[in-house]
Here is the input.
Amino acid sequence: MTLPVVFAPLVPWPLIAGLALIAALLVGIGLLRRARGSLLRLAGLIFLLAVLASPRWQVQTTAALPDTVLVIRDQTPSMAIGRRAALASAAYRHLAASLPAGVSLRTVDVGGAGGDGSPLFGKLKSALAALPRRQLAGIVLLSDGEATDAPPARLPGDVPLSLLIPAAPGETDRSLRLLSAPRYGLVGHAATLSFEVRDHGVDDAGRTVPVRISVDGQAVRTLDARIGRPETVRLPVAHAG
Here is the structure.
């Protein structure tokens, strides 16, 4: 419990204690001898000691800090596929409009034009370090697929974490895995690549899907690849570099 009175002594506390002891002895002797004015001297000494102790009335003014919902929003290139961006924007607006009074929204965008995937948890770790723990009301990941980085070793155990996936019913994740590629190629000769198409969350191994191959940004070939099975393609090496 915090006392409403605080002290800012003008002299060290040991000196005040010594003066109080001397004053008590003098007043006590005066009272025993029934000297006139002893009570008046006692009042004066108490006032002097109070001035030296410098008591001050403490008034505390507190204000509740708002709870914060942390949103990690995926804006990597894969979010531009289909209606993902529109669905994600609608979900974000709905979330922002649904927050009760006293709850704020902090948004961290994960973007990039490269092919490094969605490093969601790296951004999450940085955002958690900058946010007071007692204000964290919840974490929302707004992403279209799997994160490409490992989650932090420890997340707040009592804070809800939700994942919103902007997708239409029946949509699945598809990945292309490069199985082998030559370390170098000779100009004027063909280089052989091996790859595999995988669908996640659905059993459609053996079904064929079109795979478009581009060289220097230009489509040079389209072939039908079987899902879940290795495929090999030979491509000409037109120039060095």
